[in-house]
Amino acid sequence: MLRAKEAHQKIYQDRRWKDLRALKYSDNPVCECCKRKYTEHIHHIIPFAQFIDLDYDKALEYAFDYDNLSSLCEACHIEVHKFMNMELEDFELLLEVLEEVDSNFNEYLLEVYRKNLEISVC
Ligand SMILES: [Zn+2]
Ligand SMILES: [Zn+2]
């Protein structure tokens, strides 16, 4: 079995990833979060790395799933990752606040948050 770091690198060097990323860049050239800046990064909504040690096939599934990708500018990408590392309690508090605010950024975060909650059973 591959170690997580090697597996991660292997996925990013995979031809399938390169094609998928190119397709995503051409389909969504503008950041899906702020909808203002051009895309600099392709982000996985459900992080595939969490499955590498448990179930490598599942990790591959999430890594190469077009619907699991988001085009993000660098600033939003950093924010999204901070948000993803929050504790569930803090997530829930944040959710209440976000629901009262209407902006592209918050809508995007809400969607990402919900998708991650659905799968995070462990
Ligand atoms: Zn952005
Ligand atoms: Zn990311």
Automatic annotation (TrEMBL):
Molecular functions (GO terms): endonuclease activity; hydrolase activity; nucleic acid binding; zinc ion binding
Keyword Nuclease: yes
UniProt xrefs under InterPro entries: HNH (IPR002711), HNH_nuc (IPR003615)
Gene3D superfamilies: 1.10.30.50
Keywords: Hydrolase, Nuclease
Family: Belongs to the HNH nuclease family.
Protein name (record): Putative HNH nuclease YajD
Provenance organism: Marinifilum breve
